[in-house]
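Quick start: what a row looks like.
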Amino acid sequence: MNSRNFFAELKRRKVYSVAVTYAVVGWLLIQVVTQVFPPFEIPNWAERLVILAIIIGFPVALVLGWLFDFTRHGIIRTADLSSDARIDVSPPADSREKSIAVLPFNDLSPAKDHDYFSDGIAEELLGALAKVDGLRVAARRSSFWFKDKEAELNEIASKLNVGHVLEGSVRRDGNRVRVMAELIDACDGFTLWSETYEREMHGIFALQDEITRSIVDALKLNLDISPPPASRSTEAYDAYLHGLFYSDKSTEDALRRSLEFFQRALERDPKFSRAWTGIAKAWLWLADAYVPPLEAYPKVRDAAVRALQLNDEEAEAHVYLAESKRILDWDLDGAEAEFNRAVEIDPNSTPSNYFIAALYAARGDRDKALAYLNRTSKIDPASLWVSNFACELYRYFGLYGEAIAAGERALQLDPTFAHYGEPSLAALYREMGRFDDAIALYKKAHDFTGRPGFGLAITYARMNRRKEALQTLEAAIVGWGYRAGDAIAHVHVVLGAHDDAIRELERACEQRSSSLHGVGIAPEFVPLRSDQRFLSILKRIGLEPEKLFAATAP
């Protein structure tokens, strides 16, 4: 470890804070001892002993500060940052590398009915800027989190860890488009560049390139933009932006609407590879939550393959193909190869880093999983999706301090927890014995979604409230269209009904449940680790039990 990394590690482990605090408190104690002991005729040797103990305790405090974090939830061992886990991540905003967040553009159209278009323009600019060497771009989910929120520029820059912000507006009236864009230095609030453009719709691709070039020039970077494909029609592009808008929502209706728009884009331009990627994305998010895996994932695979046949540089398509290999074929090596290809094409993509982190975690590659998780959190710091996932992964590896931070961040990002999963923070509270907090959070999510979750049933089971656990489990089964066997197995294993748990895991294998690969590292399944039937299931789906158990050992 070089000196720069060593001092950074001292800061990460809060050793500086411990040293300063100990020095101040120690000095005060010495003052008290030297002033109080003499009047009470306490021997001088006692005074010297106390002072000597304070001095000797200083290096001990530094060692403890290095090894442990003292949190409001107790003493938690500080996570090591192994050399294998050190993947380059986004540098801080005050480094020499330029950084930018592209905020969603405002829709100024007369009828205010082109929100999809203004969002799409901003996202296209974000995607173009993300390809610029030397420019770090905040991920879409994080920058778009500020949409319709009253937030100061310095708050946005701080939360997204960027030095520059691009904002603007779009006004579309018939075939005419007016785009206003402004590049702002987040450090001093000054505008570096601003411009207003008016174009016909058919010139929208050239306009995006022009704006991108202007931003790059203002930041004094180099850029080589490839011209847009000549065959891509503006009608296809408009339909694609519609599909993209709906595919970023979590409801079944929105996801199915996105499929209609992506298909419409392909009808107008059959060679529009990104429309196929959009179809793969929509089916992936429909899977498990609304559609059985065996119905959805073949469609994910078909769309991803079609996208890559048209353009092998579609990073997201590689991600979705990887997921279909993992789930349908249990081909974890093939999935890893596709994920690595996605990261190679777009190293700053949230899906690329997120899904490969999940794969490495499921396989018991702890260091790689944590490294990609850290990278994902740096790229997408204001994403509810990422923070919730981070909380879950940290819990699996027993890193409760990090898990609490990620889970509470997710809760701050959206207190209603508006998505179709369950809050990982509630599962963490359960593992920590904070059952009332877990129950309150599960019920809060249920009140919003209207769909009872399995997590509450597991919590009741952990509390030995068997009757309530079974009633909640039944409500969860009835409340969901598709019911993953491994989700039900979670409850049975905690209740001690191991035969029922194994039966549901076998059913999950038949279903090709996408979450099945997580049972090897999930703490709820520890009681089954000596069961040969459980070990057989893990091996069947491509996992190595010994490696998994070692990775999650206390």
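That is the whole record. The first strand starts at residue 68 and ends at 71. Strands lie at 68-71, 74-77, 98-102, 106-107, 135-137, 164-173, 176-185, 191-200.
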